[in-house]
Amino acid sequence: MLFVFLYVFSCIENNINNYMINDAMRLPVVAGSFYPEDKEKLIDLIRSCFLSKFGPGHMPGKKEKGVSAVIVPHAGYFYSGPCAAFAYKAISESINPDLFVLLGPSHSGFMSCVSLQDWVTPMGVIKADRDFGRKFIANSGLLQDSEAHKNEHSIEVQLPFLQFIVDNPLILPVMIAENCDYKKVADALKKTVAETGKKIIIICSSDFTHLGSNYGFVPFHKRVKENMHALDAGAIDKIRAVSPEGFLDYIDKTKATICGRWPIAVLLHYLKKSDVRLLKYYTSADITESEYDTAVGYASIEFR
Prior knowledge:
Elements: H1 2-21, E1 25-26, H2 39-51, E2 69-72, H3 77-92, E3 99-105, E4 113-114, E5 118-121, E6 124-128, H4 130-140, E7 143-144, H5 146-149, H6 153-156, H7 159-165, E8 170-176, H8 182-196, E9 200-205, E10 210-211, H9 224-240, H10 244-254, H11 261-271, E11 276-283, H12 284-288, E12 295-303
């Protein structure tokens, strides 16, 4: 009997290992640090983000909006979760799309690329739309690269929120790095949508200004909070104008350390015209009620 048990366990273990070796599934890397690895604790934390004084203050309501995209932060949930809840509330109150396209930056130097893996979170597996993804790869010229996505957190942290508000969402994760021709990528996405006839919502993952010596960015020595808020407000004004050129020029001039600037540029070129609403802005220092010697800005922005 013991032999049979060990044989069956060995077969299961080998199947799991083969599945992982074949890159069929992307496992979580920041569960237990950016958010809880226990499913029930994770659900409770997400719910508390919606109810937080920094969050919407209530759970999503009835469906009545037509959201085409959001910009949403990607830090640890303690810091950016309440801000993110605004964007996911807007998505939850919209008609469900066929597909969520997730645009995230590269924090580790990898080039722009697409993941066709299914992604795992403590709340289960999220399926990738491989057919749409392959068409997008053909249209954009981007590579499929599972290794590049393996340790990148910017897209991963969006997924539990998405699972919380949508049953069985389909996704396409796309890493947008500094080598990106943002116009080409946006046009390729638009072409793929037209070819497939699919309704999409874009989730653009970005934090805003990273301030402090830890980030190599200390432009202010007086009225630091006010100046940081104003710096991000200037970037948000360019986003409201749906001007990728204006947004990137603003970053070039101010040196604002917005990590998702290239995903945002793709989004703005894709949309071109949109009704844009800032849903929430605050910084990590506002959460911790600490001095602004180190702070990161977070914004949730809705596009209709």
